[in-house]
Amino acid sequence: MSVSQADSAQHAGRRITQRGLWFEEFEIDTIYEHRPGRTVTEADNVLFTTLTMNTQALHLDAAFAATQPGFGGQRLVNSMFTLSTIVGLSVAQLTQGTLVANLGFSEIAFPHPLFHGDTLYAETVCTGKRESRSRPGEGVVDLTHVGRNQDGEIVARASRATLVRMAASGGSESAGGVA
């Protein structure tokens, strides 16, 4: 018996694997806070911007950004990085292993810029849910993701429709639940 098998045998109690929420567990008007936050670095911004072929000088060119009014001469963090990160921060708590699909994003806004060195915090509000009419065992959950910087200023907001498994249909093992 290997060390890991022996360790497992000694701890033969119940095992729980982290997962997101089943459709039934989402509560309308509940704010889900996602922690920890994520401090955004220059490397994050430059890598994301170049990987996505976004050559906007406001993200890449410090000398150019220094000449532009309105942002204190700083480069801006790519807004698509900001959006991706606030959604990503929500995954472990809300949709890990229970999400079937993203159905779409709407009402996306970036009311305040995010800069290198800022820490991004995310929260999500469940704004609605309904059982799917075409996919038994699944439901549509409407979410609004909000990103704030370390000063509490909203830097991003987006509404999102998702398709999520119901607990009875997903099976706890197939979506990483209680084994």
TrEMBL record:
SUPFAM superfamilies: Thioesterase/thiol ester dehydrase-isomerase. CDD domains: FkbR2. Gene3D superfamilies: Hotdog Thioesterase. Coiled coil: none annotated. InterPro entries: HotDog_dom_sf, MaoC-like_dom, MCH/BMMD. It comes from the Bacteria. Residues 28-143 form the MaoC-like domain. It holds the Pfam family MaoC_dehydratas. PANTHER family: BETA-METHYLMALYL-COA DEHYDRATASE (PTHR43664:SF1), MONOAMINE OXIDASE-RELATED (PTHR43664). Belongs to the enoyl-CoA hydratase/isomerase family. This is Oxidase regulatory-like protein. It comes from Gordonia jinhuaensis. The lineage of its organism: Bacteria, Bacillati, Actinomycetota, Actinomycetes, Mycobacteriales.
